[in-house]
């Protein structure tokens, strides 16, 4: 039996647990200090067994996944270094920063265990085990940060286990990881939060701001709803990188200010065109940087049963819908549904079917 211990069964730990659970020869053990959480993990059947005992969870484990907030990772490693772990046990983490946890593992003696840092490049703005899903990592990149001393055999065993997640593994050096992820994940979170807070202040004086907040605002600010503790830890841990990136960001903002002050219409056009080109060149069909869905938007009248009618129509024509979201729905006002498809031909078929009765936009 392969024993997998997961410390911190939240969004990421829970999604890993669901990816591994019920696989042949695998037992998944969840750990939390909180008895109510342990009960919840069991009740939701995310793990095979859960415990409040750190030692019981770690004892005899073949794989240990540390899935708490970034500030919990080094204390976890310290604690593990004081136990006798199973020889050959692989300890890994899922923290959004890699430099400090990897350096900590290098300093510590984990006995016969091996630490390999990890970071699945997939997530959500929601947190907790309630948001966990077995397919969260499918098609996403999953960064591993082995050191020079990491035995190839240990890396291969972890890689083999992670095949259950259906993610694409990629090796990155820890500091390099923190630079890149700082720019493509951490900076966007700061910008989204700052933008929402800016608009929230205007909204205090005039509620029309939130009434009119439509697709553009919602698209760029979804991640502003992310968990405050998780993000406090990430940003503090990656402080040096973030301070440099924010200086560059200030320069980008200042350059827009100059374009507007000087009425440089061509310059503004150039900025949009070059952003459009880079974004368009990003690989589309994977999660991680850009979600891999094909989305269409349907204007729908506000009457009961409308969602059922649409899903039944698509189902009857074997169109596979991956996600459905009500973007705007208020009494007496037509709503907008976002329908997401994983495959382009399903989106095309949905467009063809829905155009007959609804206003549909891509
Ligand atoms: N949310 C994302 O999109 C995302 C993506 C990839 C990696 N990560 C990383 O994964 C880790 C977990 O994030 P999440 O989104 O699953 O968060 P979460 O809040 O959903 O889960 C965190 C888990 O850790 C436990 N926990 C909370 N405080 C703790 C502490 N001080 N010590 C030990 N355990 C504690 C919680 O009970 C919970 O089970 C973080 O290190 C985060 O940086 C997050
Ligand atoms: O999709 C989201 O909500 C995320 O924030 C996921 C996201 C990201 O920024 O892309 C967030 C943190 C991670 O460490 C990895 C992925």
Can you describe this structure in just a few lines?
This is Prephenate dehydrogenase. The chain is built from 14 helices and 12 strands.
Short key terms for the protein model shown above:
eight-stranded mixed sheet; Prephenate dehydrogenase; single chain; Alpha-Beta Plaits; Preph/Arog_dehydrog; alpha/beta; binds nicotinamide-adenine-dinucleotide; binds prephenic acid; NAD; 6-phosphogluconate dehydrogenase C-terminal fold; 362 residues; 3 domains; aromatic amino acid biosynthesis; Rossmann fold; 14 helices; four-stranded antiparallel sheet; globular
Give your account of this protein's structure:
Pathway: Amino-acid biosynthesis; L-tyrosine biosynthesis; (4-hydroxyphenyl)pyruvate from prephenate (NAD(+) route): step 1/1. Residues 2-290 form the Prephenate/arogenate dehydrogenase domain. Its EC number is 1.3.1.12. One of its GO terms (molecular function) is prephenate dehydrogenase (NAD+) activity. This is Prephenate dehydrogenase. This protein is of the alpha/beta class and 362 residues long. It has 3 domains: 2-172, NAD(P)-binding Rossmann-like Domain (Rossmann fold, 3-Layer(aba) Sandwich), CATH 3.40.50.720; 177-261, 6-phosphogluconate dehydrogenase C-terminal fold; 294-361, 2-Layer Sandwich (Alpha-Beta Plaits). The protein is 48% helix and 18% strand. The chain is built from 14 helices and 12 strands. It has helices at residues 11-20, 35-43, 54-58, 70-81, 99-107, 152-162, 174-205, 208-212, 215-221, 228-237, 239-261, 265-281, 306-316, 344-354, and strands at 2-7, 26-31, 49-51, 63-66, 90-93, 114-120, 141-145, 168-171, 294-300, 323-330, 333-341, 359-361. The chain has an 8-stranded mixed beta sheet with strand order 3-2-1-4-5-6-7-8, sandwiched between helices. A 4-stranded antiparallel beta sheet has the order 10-11-9-12. Helix 6 (152-162) links the parallel strand 7 and strand 8. The longest helix is centred in the middle third of the chain and has 32 residues, at 174-205. The radius of gyration is 23 Å and the shape is globular. Mean pLDDT is 93; it is low at 287-291 and 329-333. Prephenic acid binds at residues 96, 121-125, 185, 223, 226. Nicotinamide-adenine-dinucleotide binds at residues 8-13, 32, 37, 67-70, 72, 94-96, 119-120, 123-124, 127-128, 227, 230, 234.
């Amino acid at each position: 039996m392969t024993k997998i211990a997961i410390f911190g069964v939240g969004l990421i730990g829970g999604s890993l647990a669901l990816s591994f659970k019920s696989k042949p020869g695998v037992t998944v053990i969840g750990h939390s200090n909180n008895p109510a959480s342990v009960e919840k993990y069991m009740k939701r059947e995310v793990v095979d067994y859960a415990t409040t005992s750190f030692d019981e969870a770690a004892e005899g484990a073949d794989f240990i996944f540390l899935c708490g907030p970034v500030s919990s990772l080094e204390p976890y490693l310290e604690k593990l270094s004081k136990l006798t772990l199973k020889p050959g046990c692989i300890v890994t983490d899922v923290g959004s920063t890699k430099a400090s946890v990897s350096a900590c593992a290098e300093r510590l003696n984990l006995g016969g265990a091996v630490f390999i840092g990890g970071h699945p490049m997939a997530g959500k703005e929601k947190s907790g085990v309630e948001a966990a899903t077995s397919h969260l990592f499918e098609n996403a990149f999953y960064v591993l940060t082995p050191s020079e001393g990491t035995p190839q055999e240990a890396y291969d065993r972890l890689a083999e286990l992670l095949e259950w997640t259906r993610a694409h593994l990629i090796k990155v050096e820890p500091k390099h990881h923190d630079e890149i992820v700082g720019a493509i994940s951490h900076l966007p979170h700061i910008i989204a939060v700052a933008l929402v807070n800016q608009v929230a202040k205007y909204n205090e004086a005039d509620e029309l701001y939130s009434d009119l907040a439509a697709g553009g605002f919602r698209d760029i600010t979804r991640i502003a709803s992310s968990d405050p503790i998780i993000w406090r830890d990430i940003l503090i841990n990656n402080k040096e990188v973030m301070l440099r990136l924010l200086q560059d960001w200030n320069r980008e903002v200042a350059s827009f200010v100059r374009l507007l002050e000087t009425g440089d219409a061509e310059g503004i056009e150039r900025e949009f065109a070059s952003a459009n080109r880079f974004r368009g060149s990003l690989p589309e069909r994977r999660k991680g940087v850009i979600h891999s869905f094909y989305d269409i938007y349907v204007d729908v009248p506000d009457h009961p049963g409308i969602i059922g009618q649409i899903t039944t129509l698509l189902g009857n024509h074997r169109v596979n819908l991956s996600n459905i979201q009500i973007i705007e729905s208020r009494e007496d006002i037509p709503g907008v549904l976002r329908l997401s498809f994983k495959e382009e031909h399903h989106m095309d078929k949905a467009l063809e079917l829905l155009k007959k009765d609804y206003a549909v936009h891509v």
